[in-house]
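Q: Please design a sequence for this.
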């Protein structure tokens, strides 16, 4: 879900920002190779959070690359030519032999029924033997151990449709360790254990998606909502996509796009910004830029009629309703920020009060934006019917609330309450170094400027009851609607 941001929220954390606006506190620096630094000094504790956001996610994958950004997220924890190995010179020839065998195996599998079962068995046996030989040189989790021994916490990464992020918080006197590790990873990453890790991701897919009815519904729902745009493809990839990913393909994707010109670095905490710039320049300045991530030029055609997806499963009923909406930082998107708060944010929202508390047709309900924000996405309502009520009853109740937005102006006091809640929630989110580093890198990547954070509040404050009615009428239509639901096997809707 998109974070709601405001300049008032920033001012509320004046103890951390020294009573100054974020505009005054953020220090920007763009290196010659294109890497952008966004820094904020906070001297409340001797710690620092460092986030690297790459402007490449699953939306940027071609059809033969689906799942590659997510798999790379796993692989980039495996080490470099000096970390994660006890003898890279001896390990490398085996890694090369593994890849040659894996490529041959992939090509043979692609023949399907025309392939040779005997050859497949021989190649699989050879691959297994080579992987066992390579494992002798692997030092597991050396990145993690280095950070942990030096006070690092929260070492993690995540991939979305819009981007990929690597993050860590650590003592401020260990920032140079971060620079050394991350610059080494950017230049010398070794995708060792690729095919064993690929098998891990395939199992993740089986367990978390294929065997999970709610996840399966969500995945099918999103794919059905986007017939052309790559927002419709799952970040993890379809199973056949993962099965055909190779280290060669992953290395090419990595070297093309995981480069300084596609990276935004957020450093927030107990730092001297001038010294931080010198440090980052020293470690990252010599890295050559890669290719710019090309924009997704596919435009989702206007939906001309309702789409409905039913999943029969041994699961309790679930309902998802989605409407196409514009991308982040567009005029109507600010109106959706307000609509989201009115309808689906927390226990004071209309959906929760009406459907959960008063009518008791749903046990839970919420609203959010998905699956990304760089390009036009979806406004989504997700709910679980409360027995004995049905999916149809919940769907009708949701539609009633949507129709009400079209015909009845929202009271000004409700708009002020929503604005106050947005401010409070953002102050809470940005109270940590990591929270601010995330927002700086996230919005620089998705909107082109972190200043979206300071401009958003005024945009939302300008939303009127008439705007809400107009947007509701424009987007909450039957022809713009996709509905997905789970029907329990043997039960009614």
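A: Design:
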């Amino acid at each position: 879900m998109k974070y709601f941001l405001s300049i008032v929220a920033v001012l509320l954390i004046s103890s951390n920002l020294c009573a100054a606006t974020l505009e005054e506190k953020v220090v920007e620096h763009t290196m010659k190779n294109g890497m952008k630094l966004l820094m904020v000094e906070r001297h409340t504790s001797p710690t620092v959070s460092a986030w690297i956001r790459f402007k490449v996610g699953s939306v940027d994958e071609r059809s033969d690359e689906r799942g590659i950004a997510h798999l790379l997220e796993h692989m980039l924890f495996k080490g470099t030519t000096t970390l994660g190995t006890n003898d890279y010179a001896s390990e490398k020839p085996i890694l090369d032999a593994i890849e040659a065998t894996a490529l041959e195996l992939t090509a043979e599998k692609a023949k399907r029924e025309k392939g040779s079962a005997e050859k497949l068995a021989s190649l699989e046996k050879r691959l297994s033997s080579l992987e066992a030989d390579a494992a002798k040189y692997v030092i597991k989790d050396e990145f993690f151990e280095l950070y942990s021994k030096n006070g690092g916490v929260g070492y993690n990464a995540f991939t979305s449709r819009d981007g990929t992020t690597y993050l860590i918080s650590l003592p401020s006197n260990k920032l140079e360790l971060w620079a050394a590790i991350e610059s080494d990873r950017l230049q010398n990453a070794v995708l060792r254990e690729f095919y064993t890790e690929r098998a891990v991701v395939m199992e993740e897919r089986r367990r978390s998606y294929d065997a999970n009815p709610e996840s399966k519904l969500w995945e099918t729902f999103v794919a059905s909502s986007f017939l052309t745009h790559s927002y419709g493809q799952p970040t993890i990839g379809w199973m056949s996509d993962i099965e055909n990913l190779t280290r060669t393909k992953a290395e090419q994707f990595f070297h093309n796009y995981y480069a300084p010109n596609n990276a935004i670095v957020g450093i927030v905490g107990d730092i001297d910004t001038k010294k931080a710039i010198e440090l980052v320049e020293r470690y990252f300045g010599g890295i050559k830029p890669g290719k710019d991530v090309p924009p997704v030029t596919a435009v989702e055609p206007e939906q001309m009629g309702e789409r409905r997806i039913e999943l029969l499963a041994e699961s309790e009923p679930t309902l998802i309703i989605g409407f196409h909406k514009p991308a982040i930082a567009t005029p109507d998107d600010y109106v959706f920020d307000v609509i989201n708060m009115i309808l689906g944010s927390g226990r004071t929202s209309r959906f929760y009060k009406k459907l959960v508390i008063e009518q008791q047709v749903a046990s839970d309900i919420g609203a959010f934006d998905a699956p990304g924000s760089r390009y036009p996405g979806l406004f989504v309502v997700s709910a679980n019917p409360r027995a004995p009520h049905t999916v149809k009853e919940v769907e009708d109740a949701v539609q009633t609330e949507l129709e009400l937005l079209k015909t009845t102006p929202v009271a000004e006091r409700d708009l002020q309450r929503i604005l106050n809640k947005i401010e409070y929630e953002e102050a809470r989110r940005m109270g940590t170094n990591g929270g601010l580093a995330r927002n700086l890198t996230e919005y620089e990547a998705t909107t082109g400027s972190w200043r979206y954070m300071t401009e958003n509040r005024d945009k939302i404050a300008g939303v009127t009851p008439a705007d809400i009615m107009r947007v509701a009428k424009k987007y909450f239509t039957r022809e713009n609607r996709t509905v997905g639901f789970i029907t329990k096997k043997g039960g009614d809707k």
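Q: Thanks. Anything notable?
A: The chain is about 50% helix and 15% strand. The first helix runs from residue 7 to 12.
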